[in-house]
């Protein structure tokens, strides 16, 4: 299977640069994964597709203001650092630009020395490990000096930083937002619960894989980066009960999907657990955990297009995307949504 099979034509003007004024007024394409039939709705209509007894699974990760701009202490050269994951204590794995300037022992200063980073490991493809030094609480310093790590295809400045967080974001640790969840409002979630639909929160911290293109010809040759996940005992019991009673598990986003499928693949059941996953879902994969998926429209030739193609079929997905382009849906992080039922 070649990566090129997951390509499609997307006019650049359809890449959403800013979020809509109201989260749940984005458009919603409903795709029947069995027939390929498509309906056009608005996101707030999602409630009519959910049934009492269903469980909606949401990723409660919170995005770090993880992009820092600083300068090398010796040469004053400008350096961009993107925090990816906490390795240990104050040492973080980071993506650096320009990486060639950062060698072992290099010190980068941010905010006139409020925060300093010393390089302690040099990896490939722009990866460096930095040990940070600062006064006070690291997360508070980061809130002051850092900015939201918006994807490279977004060129507009984000006026309200909270719009790149879900309304239920709680567990700090992501380098990018789980964007399918950006469409929900607190009011919509309350209405969904009132209908008798369960809400379950799991955590997957979105990491480097989000920023990495697929650079191989064959899909099977691509290697995913590992990301940290956690599921509580209460959520595991709820999901087990949902399945046992014949109701549906509806995943919000590809990150929730990867977490649920990882746990079922490892244990054959839902259970309280934490760990690292590098699961790669592409056509041929047999889903073990989820029944339906709420997701955004994804980049051509990306692992996310491959995941939704595994669930709904490549032909159905590429046809739906073709319709979305024709109907001028908004694409990617701040774009419109799809419900695969």
| Computed Rg | 20 Å
What is the CATH C-level name of the largest domain?
Alpha Beta
Largest sheet: 9 strands, mixed
Shape: globular
CATH topology of the largest domain: QueA-like
Proportion of helical residues: 10-25%
Order of helices and strands: EEEEEEEEEEHEHEEHEHEEHHE
Number of helices: 6
Q: Strands of the biggest beta sheet: in what spatial order?
A: 2-1-17-16-14-3-12-13-15
In the CATH hierarchy, the architecture of the largest domain is: 3-Layer(aba) Sandwich
For the record, the count of structural domains works out to: 2
Please mark out the parts with pLDDT under 50 across 5 or more consecutive residues, or reply none: none
The fourth-level CATH homologous superfamily of the largest domain is: QueA-like
> What is the terminal separation in angstroms?
25 Å
What's the average pLDDT?
96
Strand content: 25-35%
Extended strand count: 17
Q: How would you describe the overall organization of this protein?
A:
The protein has 341 residues and is an alpha/beta fold. The protein has two domains: 3-63 and 160-340, QueA-like; 67-145, QueA-like (Thrombin, subunit H, Beta Barrel). It has six helices and 17 strands. The strands form three sheets. It has a nine-stranded mixed beta sheet with strand order 2-1-17-16-14-3-12-13-15. It has a six-stranded antiparallel barrel with strand order 5-6-7-10-9-8. Strand 6 and strand 7 form a beta hairpin. Helix 5 crosses helix 6. The longest helix has 14 residues, at 254-267. The protein starts with 26 loop residues before the first strand and ends with a strand. The relative contact order is 0.21.
